[in-house]
Amino acid sequence: MSLRSDTLASVPSEIRRPGYDRARLTPGVVHLGIGNFHRAHQAIYLEDLVERTGLGLGITGVSLKSPGMRDKLAPQDGLYTLLVREGDVATARVVGIIGRTLVGPEDPAAVVRQIADPATRLITLTVTEKGYCLDPSTHRLDPSHPDIVADRTTPTSAIGYLLAGLKQRFTAGAKPPTVLSCDNLPSNGATLRLALIDGAALSDDRFAAWLEANLVAPSAMVDRIVPASTEADFADAERLTGLADRAALSTEPFSQWVIEQTLDRDLHGLGDVGVELVGAVEPYERMKLRLLNGAHSTIAYAGQAVGAEYVSDVVALPALRRFVAALQTEELAPTVGHFPADRLAEYSRQLMQRWDNTAVKHRTRQIAMDGSQKLPQRLLSATVERLQQGLPVERLTLAVALWVRHLSGRDDRGEPIPVNDPLAARLMPLAAADRPASQVVERLLAVRTVFPEALEASADFRTRLTDALSHLRAVGTIVALGG
Ligand code: CS2
Questions:
Q1: Domains of the chain (ranges plus CATH)?
Q2: 3: left (phi over 0), alpha (psi -120 to 50) or beta
Q3: Nearest ligand 1 atom, CA 256
């Protein structure tokens, strides 16, 4: 028997399930990019809010690319099991806050209608860094991006869908919904707002001015480690609930969502279900993007080089664990600002504990994806700041060198490894393993969409990166990072 509305009652009573009437939910929230992260993070907070306040706000999910998630959720009436794992313990909860899931390419107009519908008051997004179609180094919309070009005919990018829906509201003289980016970008709300205004201005200045005057886009920091689902998730969900569930997923106990107070007042109830509402999100974003994501990318490239499949495998290797901890404490934490040093030290310690959770099967391969879109805010901006202040960047340089080496498509043993990146076709030939390290560094640093000019211009950094790459090639990851 499968998980569905009409089988839900058979779930053992100790397992948490929707404590509200699902039939009475109205689709007040649209989520673009419905994947595992949304289902283990924002969906949970929103469900807790609905349960606590009786606010009948359901989520309409949107897949912008493939029908995969809809095909799993639709036969289960949108229900799925979330497993929270720590050690040998897995706690199940059946989640019901998601109603319909739409698939953009199948029916773009349906997605646009949902965004334009006055009942939609909040639109959340997890479309990954590349989904914003930005120039990664400037964080402004790239009008020549193929998806933005395609948007002129049919909505294709998240920006295109949003603009098409918002335009209908503009034409109708209505107000825009709040848009809330939940991706790992610096100032993600302001960045999204600017991308939308830039996109609108490509065809209609009055529409752009209306967005400028009316669009509320709070910034947010989101955090929870949510791997891709595995067969073990499906098996454990069925064991615990008694019902087969092909949409089951797992996550860690930790979860954090920090949102700017500009969020609509009637959603401030989120503050009672664990969301932190703050005046300025940027300090939290910086802390997370650098100490978590910067270290995460480093772990991922080191892990790919040494053949470590999961994050927990990488931090179990003493040389790599020490390197990551030192990168955080010595070079990243001092760039975060705002928070006292002991708070940042505690945050870093807690991160290491989270990565030690072997029950969360987070693949280094998954995190290694899209480095060109991630490195600027995770590692490169901190490197620039430290160089400008004359501070040591030894570990940051090695971390960047790990990515450069990853782009060669070879691990420490010379075996091929996948490079999954929208710029792979351009970057991989520049980083080939048989090119001299100095040439690789010179060519890559000139790629302005990834590397800020300040790094190419620094002779010191060029030499350091060349040396770090040569060293990695010569002695391998463990020795280079441990030495
Ligand atoms: C990871 C993040 O895949 C990645 O690049 O660094 O998805 C990370 O797991 C989340 O930001 C944790 O909140």
A1: 8-278 (3.40.50.720), 282-480 (1.10.1040.10)
A2: beta
A3: 13
